[in-house]
């Protein structure tokens, strides 16, 4: 099973679509676990790379992950909990003395096609991969080989 649409959504700075596709991948793994036996099947779940998506600010407990984290103190502009380091979600202006970002007041940041804010502009669909290590999870046949090391 491959979750390629997760990657496509991340390259488009669309956190909601990436999270929905991640849940679809989770469902596929759960089905595979139900239809196989750990005695004769090895299931590995991993990614081939990370992206520049990050959790941002100090959102209050219970705040929607696709919602507003808080407001920036100097100008009172809200910013999203999830943001990208780069991508098409870049939307900043220079007022002569400061760089300001798009005012998200009254914007539905949980809409299906909303694109999260990004710090550096890159063309549509051109958000880059991140540099983090990715986790690899395994369950089933032979996964106990390293238990005694």
Automatic annotation (TrEMBL):
GO molecular function: alkaline phosphatase activity; metal ion binding
Binding site for Zn(2+): 7, 11, 48-49, 129
Cofactor: Zn(2+); Mg(2+)
SUPFAM superfamilies: Alkaline phosphatase-like
Known EC number: 3.1.3.1
Phosphoprotein recorded as keyword: yes
Keyword Protein biosynthesis: no
Binding sites annotated in the UniProt record for Mg(2+): 2
Comment on bound cofactor: Binds 2 Zn(2+) ions.
Name of the protein described by the UniProt record: alkaline phosphatase
Annotated source species: Notodromas monacha
């Amino acid at each position: 099973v491959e979750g390629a649409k997760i990657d496509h959504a991340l390259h488009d700075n669309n956190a909601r679509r990436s999270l929905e596709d991640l849940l679809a991948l989770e469902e596929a793994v759960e089905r595979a676990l139900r239809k196989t036996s750990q005695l004769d099947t090895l299931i590995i779940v991993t990614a081939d790379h990370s992206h520049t998506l990050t959790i941002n600010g100090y959102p209050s407990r219970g705040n929607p992950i696709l919602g507003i984290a808080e407001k920036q103190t100097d100008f009172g502009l809200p910013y999203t909990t999830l943001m990208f380091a780069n991508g098409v979600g870049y939307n900043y202006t220079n007022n002569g003395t400061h760089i300001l970002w798009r005012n998200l007041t009254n914007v539905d940041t949980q809409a299906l096609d909303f694109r999260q804010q990004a710090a550096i502009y890159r063309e549509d669909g051109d958000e880059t991969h991140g540099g983090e290590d990715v986790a690899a999870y395994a369950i089933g046949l032979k996964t106990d080989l390293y238990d005694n090391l």
